[in-house]
Every structure is written in C-alpha cells, then in structure tokens.
Amino acid sequence: MADDEVTVVAHAARQEARFCLDFVSRRPGRLWDVQIAEGMRTRSYPLNHERLVARVLGKKVPGTQSRTDWRRRPLSDRQVEYARDDVRFLLAIHQRQEQALSSLGRREWAEAEFERMIDEVEAERGEESWRRLSGVNRLDRTGLAVARAVFWWRDRCGEELNQPVRRVLRDDLLIDLAKRKPKTTEEVLATRDMTRRNFKRHAEALAATVREVLAGPEEDFPERIRRRGEIHDDDHVLGQLLAIALANRCAELDVAVSLVGTSDELKRLVRWHVHGDRDGDPPRLCTGWRSEVCGDLLTDVLDGKISMRVSPERDTPLAFERAEGDEEPGAETGRAGDPVGGDVPDGDPAESPFGFGL
After folding, report:
1. pTM score, two decimals?
2. Which residues contact residue 330 at a Cβ distance below 8 angstroms, ignoring those fewer than 6 apart?
3. Which of the listed CATH numbers 1.10.150.80, 3.20.20.70, 3.30.565.10, 3.30.1330.60 matches domain 231-358?
4. What is the pLDDT of residues 245-273, one digit of tens each?
C-alpha cells in the first residue's frame, strides 16, 4: 500500500489508510477511494458499497452478510461470496471514475481529497486527537480530562479486542460520560444506550477510569478549547444563505455538497471574511479545488456583489448572478443568465446583514 507505483483501490478507505500508517508507519502511496471519487462526479456522497456498485455498474450486490462476525471460522460459502463481492467490482468502478473525472478536469480534485483524507487519519493518531471529538469544546476542564482519559482507554481496548473503537464506545456516549463524570458502574449505566451489551460490559472499567481522573491533580487537566473568534448574531443566518448558494452551485456542477463543505466550515468562512477573524489557516472553502467550486461565489455573496433570483426554467431552481454595477470586465463568474436589473440595497448592517428591495 505504501508503494508509489501501485494504485490501491478501496471503498471508504480510512481504515486502509489507518492500517498502512499503523503497521508500516508510512502513508499510502497511491490510494483511490471510490466513495470520495463518486462524490466528485455526482451528488451522491457517501454511498455504501452496495449502492455504489448499483449506480456505477448497474449490478446488484446482496447485503445479506453485512453483519457477519468475520473472526469466526470456517466461513460459509455465502460469506466467502460476499467477501469476494466486496472487492471484485472495485477496479471496474475505478476505471469508470478515472475516465469521467479526467474528462471533467477533476482528477486532481479527487487526488487532493484522497491526500486530505489521509492527513485526517494521520492527525487522529496524534496526542491531541481526542480534541477532534464532536462536542468536546463544550466541556469544562474536568470534562476534558475525562474525555481524554476515556478516549485513550477506548483506543487501547479496541486494539486489545481487535475491534473498531466506536464499537467499544460511541463518540456521543464518550462525551456524555465526560459531561456526567460517573464514578460508579450504576452511574455509568444511567444513560440508556450504555445498557447495550457491547457497551455495558465496559461499565466498571469506565467508572474506574473516571475515578482515576477525578483523583488526579487539577493542574494536569487540559485547558479549555478557545472558540474561534467572536460569535455574532447574524453568523447563523449568513451561514444558511451561503448553504443555499453552495447547494445550488454543487447542483450546477454535479458535485456532492456534503463533500465540498459543512455548516461549520460555512460559519468559519463568515467569521474569516466578514469579521476579519484571520486566526489560523484560511477556510478550507477558499483553498484548493473547493475554491474552484465555490470560493469566489461565496465571498461575493458575503460582499453583496451577487443577486439571487428564482429561475424555474433552469435545471437548478436558483440563479446567483453578479449584481448590476458589479460586473468585472472579462471576469468569469460561472453563473448562467443576465444580471438582475436594479441595485442590491445595502440595508442597515446594524440591524440586519440583508437588504431586500423591488
């Protein structure tokens, strides 16, 4: 997998990337993730293996063995056939995707996204990887200490049991434990989903982990995560407006919006562009292939240079066009239709970021 001369094709390839990093301490050389690649040429992301095979090749893959315990031996004939189906179609899918993305000029997009995925997997292995848990930024310092300890306990347990860590304990349950800080088995099991058998068996170990944290010195607890920039009342509304513009642009280009950007990334763009919060790297939506898809459009929307109108006759229902008076000679806007007549009112920024006029 680490050989630069060999292309490794996989579906949802994070585990393959993690395997390569863990066992040979090297990044995969040429990894092609068919799930990501499909999102670069259609609006379908993420597709499971069965649906991806059906979409690209028109073939049906039975999903009857998807919950098989692969550690048990011997495998039945059906299980063996299912395992073969899991890989037999990948090269044909890769070939079609590679041809399509090359003709669209998007192959470099896909390769850049594969590298970014590997970067994320690599970052998950670092000492501070527990800080990537969803909801961790809302914890107090004691909660952060519990989250860190349980995170690394889960990692060790998953390795010992040869199980994915989220099968040992889901992320949301980990954060719940960090909020509640239960010191007994009964307190651990007070959350409904913790009573499921695969989680319940770890209740005492979890309680012991929490007790150990609470008995330790507070000066060793992690510092709270500082929120990026000031939160403004209009950020949520502006983020929703950008989400509409982004969804429409992705529909025009036939790219999966969920692959291009998230609501958090849109809010980050608002803070960076509108409020001047330039702490850290530029927003991801303004870099790389994402900037080709939507970077100028989104910043132009925030600058009031773009007008929006409903256009029922178009393949996509909305038209985002450069407002009259803001045309740039020779500029490529990438938006269909003539500019809407009339200036876009500025509005009163102290009251609202929008201006609506006739």
Report:
1. 0.79
2. none
3. 1.10.150.80
4. 999 999 999 999 999 999 989 999 999 99
